[in-house]
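Students often ask why inverse folding is considered easier than folding. One informal answer: many sequences map to the same fold, so there is more than one right answer. In these notes we will look at a single instance of the problem. The structure comes first.
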């Protein structure tokens, strides 16, 4: 992680970096090679992110971005492909002056990983030679997971990788999902480890690139007000909600064999949990932070057998209305098996068995076709004693809640009880509220901007280390196994536009709590 800097209230670190007033993130000249370069991820996320880095002056001074795929295209075709991606998906529009200098960095190479990568090597050599690039390559696997292992093996066969040097001459970026279960995750990680050292491997969990997610550690450890309260003495419980209004869209092929637990919980939600629950790391070094997050995963109480039934709820959306629009049920979506048993919603109750969090329940939930897109972590403090202002059992005061809004209304709020002005003592819950939009102005960088910048700078802090990925799988496996063990068990349903099935409410109510609507 770069050294923290003090930011003036009206400038972000990004703006300071762009203005050169903050320590620059060292980005050496690099050749970025995107396998799956003409795919959806490259079109929607990677190329727009690289373009925005270019706009901010954050790309290295010398860079080549080569898309690789089976399609036969010219460099100009690829530049046009990138342009449509930027036009449709970039957070900032095309700038007539900046575009040509960005586009000049883009190249296309036709290659298939079924064949030899020799011609790709020759093409990259030419591109890199012409641009004076020293040969540091960043391989981005924007391909289906089934192609991770073959691609890595081909890179090895083509002798593209120098393993084990202190300064990486090659880095590899791997997208989630890393595996379908613990075993397949290990197989992918083993195959990668045959070719790359761990310090050359960047496993993406794009939630870690979100500004608001990075802010969790800042909020906790750059302020003295919160950290003394973050433990079982003061915290009643913690909720993590990641809600999507969208349905499965055109991704049924992937989602049918994934489901919400694999797609969202194993990675994004457990990563959020790690950040909110971690011990203070002793430094901002990537591995120090990742060690602490691993500790959280290793402290999760394992769910076994019937614990799974009492601590987890899955659900599937049926036809309903989302934001006033009628939408079909999951089983009616294109490409979905009408008898599908894939879950589109998960709620969990879990415990972190360490000194800090002993006895504090954590509730996690995520789902598609919920009432709105909203992700939030809420930390619920214990009630004040039932005396003074809280003594009426029929009108208890709202406990303080710290809500970290991950998206879309980025910010955080603290609910506080306050006296309503007037002659009587009446207490009312008010909010201290911070909004990124109104405080910092400009839109925050997209997660992929930050993540790509960090890969180029060689900073692994925001990426998943092998042991973390496997620890997360290790914890979710008993849930997957239990669910798979009974193919006749009914799966609760919810109408699209509701907050999941009623069973999810019961999960928290049996503990005397309620879900907080984000
Ligand atoms: C992806 C999941 O990892 O995250 C998708 O595969 C999900 O199913 C997406 O929609 C959500 O990301 P975001 O950034 O839109 O919250």
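Output (designed amino acids):
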């Amino acid at each position: 992680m770069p050294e923290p800097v003090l930011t003036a209230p009206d400038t972000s670190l990004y703006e300071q970096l762009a203005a050169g007033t903050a320590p620059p993130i060292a980005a050496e000249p690099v050749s970025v090679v995107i396998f799956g370069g003409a795919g959806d991820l490259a079109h929607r996320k990677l190329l727009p992110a690289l373009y925005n880095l270019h706009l901010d002056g954050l790309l290295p001074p010398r860079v080549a971005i080569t898309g690789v795929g089976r399609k036969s295209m010219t460099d100009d075709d690829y530049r046009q492909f990138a342009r449509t991606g930027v036009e449709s998906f970039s957070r900032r529009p095309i700038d007539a002056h900046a575009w040509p200098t960005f586009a000049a960095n883009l190249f296309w190479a036709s290659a298939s990983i079924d064949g030899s990568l020799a011609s790709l090597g020759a093409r990259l050599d030419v591109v890199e030679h012409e641009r004076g690039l020293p040969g540091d390559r960043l391989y981005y696997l924007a391909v289906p997971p089934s192609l991770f292992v073959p691609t890595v093996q081909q890179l090895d066969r083509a002798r593209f990788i120098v393993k084990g040097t202190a300064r990486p001459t090659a880095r590899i970026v791997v997208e989630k999902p890393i595996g379908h279960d613990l075993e397949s995750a290990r197989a992918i990680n083993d195959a990668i480890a045959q070719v790359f050292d761990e310090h050359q491997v960047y496993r993406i969990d794009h939630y870690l690139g979100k500004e608001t997610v990075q802010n969790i550690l800042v909020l906790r450890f750059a302020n003295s007000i919160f950290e003394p309260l973050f433990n079982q003495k003061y915290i009643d419980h913690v909720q993590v909600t990641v809600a999507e209004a969208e349905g499965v869209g055109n991704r049924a092929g992937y989602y049918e064999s994934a489901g919400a637990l694999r797609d969202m919980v194993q990675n994004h939600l457990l990563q959020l949990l790690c950040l909110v629950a971690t011990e203070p790391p002793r430094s901002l070094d990537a591995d120090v932070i990742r060690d602490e997050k691993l500790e959280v995963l290793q402290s999760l109480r394992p769910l076994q057998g019937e614990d799974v039934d009492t601590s987890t709820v899955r659900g599937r959306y049926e036809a309903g209305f989302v934001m006033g629009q009628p939408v079909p049920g999951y089983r009616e979506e294109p490409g979905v098996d009408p008898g599908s048993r894939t879950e589109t919603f998960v709620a969990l109750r879990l415990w972190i068995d360490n000194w800090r969090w002993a006895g504090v329940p954590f509730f996690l939930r995520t789902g598609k076709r919920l009432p709105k897109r909203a992700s939030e972590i809420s930390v619920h403090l214990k009630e004040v004693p039932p005396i003074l202002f809280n003594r009426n059992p029929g009108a208890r005061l709202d406990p303080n809640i710290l809500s970290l809004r991950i998206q879309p209304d980025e910010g955080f709020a603290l609910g506080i009880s306050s006296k309503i002005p007037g002659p009587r003592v009446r207490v009312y819950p008010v909010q201290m509220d911070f909004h990124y939009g109104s405080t910092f102005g400009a839109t925050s960088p997209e997660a992929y901007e930050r993540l790509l910048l960090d890969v180029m700078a060689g900073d692994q802090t925001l990426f998943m280390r092998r042991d973390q990925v496997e620890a997360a799988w290790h914890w979710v496996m008993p849930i997957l196994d239990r669910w798979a063990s009974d193919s006749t068990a009914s799966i609760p349903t919810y109408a699209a536009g509701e907050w999941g099935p009623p069973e999810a409410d019961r999960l928290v109510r049996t503990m005397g709590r309620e879900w907080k609507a984000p």
